[in-house]
Write a structure and sequence with these properties.
Layout: H1 4-23, H2 27-35, H3 38-43, H4 55-68
Length: 77
């Protein structure tokens, strides 16, 4: 995908906003909450196709990863 690198910052920004809202974290805390995860690593890889998921679905995946320490992909990815 040609414009993939421009999609990721927007996806991350939306996801961080949802984390701030859901977890009541400050901006830096929300970034750290996301950045050290398997989800962020996978989202950064164009081949995983996670960039096409909604921010809400990505947040669900993140919360599952935080609970289980596993990144579980939806059936439709």
């Amino acid at each position: 995908m040609k414009d993939y690198s421009s999609i990721i910052p927007t996806k991350v920004q939306d996801l961080v906003s949802l984390i701030i809202e859901a977890k009541r974290l400050e901006f830096r805390e929300a970034l750290q909450y996301l950045y050290w995860t398997k989800l962020y690593e996978a989202l950064s890889n164009e081949e995983t196709k996670l960039w096409h998921l909604s921010s809400e679905k990505l947040l669900d995946m993140l919360e599952t990863e935080k609970l289980t320490n596993e990144l579980i992909y939806p059936d439709f990815v």
